[in-house]
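To: structure desk
From: M.T.
Subject: fold request, one chain
Message: Could you run this one when you get a chance? Sequence is below, nothing fancy, just the single chain.
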Amino acid sequence: MTMDIRVKLPEQIASENICVCFERQALEMWAIGRSCAYRFFVQKLYKPVIVDRCNHRVFAKKQRVTLKIHKYNNLYWRFLKG
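Reply: Done. Structure tokens follow.
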């Protein structure tokens, strides 16, 4: 099962200025803007994920980054909905 997390940014940031690190049960994203840096960090995910299949996609004009997480099972993470 895959899950998409959409992170809305306050300014347009190019894809080369965005760094994403997926770990077995953690997730971190840095976005370097003109005057400041933005960080999205989940210290501990509910269950382990398949790190090799996780990826990210940058939509600079829409000021959005989509983080795709690939899980081992098909059970929902209800507390991450919203």
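Reply (cont.): The first strand starts at residue 2 and ends at 8. Let me know if you need anything else for the meeting.
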